[in-house]
Specification:
This protein is an all-alpha fold and about 230 residues long. It has helices spanning about 1-15, 20-45, 50-65, 70-85, 95-120, 125-130, 135-165, 180-190, 195-230. Helix 3 packs across helix 5 (about 95-120), helix 5 (about 95-120) crosses helix 7 (about 135-165) and helix 8 (about 180-190) runs antiparallel to helix 9.
Length: about 230
């Protein structure tokens, strides 16, 4: 009886883990796109050009004040209809694309604030020093401001990646079979599984993934601090 229980549990773990690559792909693509878009939004808000600043601020307000699942449905059901007005048919797109678009837009709103606050924390004095030696704005950004801002931003970037990982669990609501979607499949098909046991397994998987992210960003943060100390010396 005990062996049967262990075999059932092992089978469940393997079945849920089969969809782990989908979860990781969704998280990684969304975080990369979200970071790039967040960087652009942060620069727009820092430079405060009137029209672009208003658009960026309105976008941030909407994305931060509406639930991620509502945004997912808006993109999944609304984007194809909107693009059809321009004679662009995206109904045959993979569902994963719509999820990546949604979570990229959603995470960009929060990541832009992380980037902006880290940028401002570096201080305007260094920007002025860069100008004094003949650097352009983008040269100073690439060579001086961003390396320091990245070190300051690492803890918050790690926290936002963990939040993004958990939010990707909503993807099953549009039919994506990630690890959370696989749980729904298992329960729906009734593989002889105890529902409580299935949710315990998937919660432990998310927990272990979050621990891995925390560990990775903890190491990156320590390396960043060592690099800053070396530069200071």
């Amino acid at each position: 009886m005990m062996n049967n229980n262990w075999e059932t549990t092992a089978s469940l773990i393997l079945k849920i883990a089969e969809r782990l690559p989908t979860t990781l792909t969704l998280m990684i693509l969304s975080s990369i796109c979200g970071l790039l878009l967040g960087f652009v939004i942060a620069i727009i808000r820092i430079r405060k050009k009137r029209i672009s600043y208003f658009i960026a601020t309105t976008y941030l307000s909407f994305m931060r004040c509406t639930p991620a699942i509502v945004q997912l449905f808006l993109i999944y059901y609304g984007l194809p209809q909107l693009l059809l007005l321009f004679h662009i048919n995206v109904n045959d797109w993979d569902k994963l694309i719509f999820a990546v678009i949604t979570f990229s837009l959603h995470s960009a709103a929060f990541l832009s604030e992380v980037i902006r606050s880290s940028y401002l924390a570096v201080g305007s004095g260094q920007q002025e020093a860069a100008y004094s030696v003949g650097m352009t704005y983008f040269q100073s950004l690439r060579q001086i401001i961003l390396p320091q801002a990245l070190g300051l931003a690492l803890p918050n970037l790690g926290n936002n990646l963990i939040i993004l990982l958990k939010e990707t669990s909503l993807a099953f609501s549009i039919g994506i079979t990630d690890i959370m979607g696989q749980v729904q499949v298992i329960i729906g098909n009734n593989y002889g599984a105890n529902i409580f046991e299935v949710y315990i397994i998937v919660s432990i998987m998310y927990w272990l993934l979050c621990i891995a992210i925390e560990t990775l960003f903890g190491r990156l943060e320590r390396r960043s601090r060592k690099g800053q100390v070396s530069i200071a010396r």
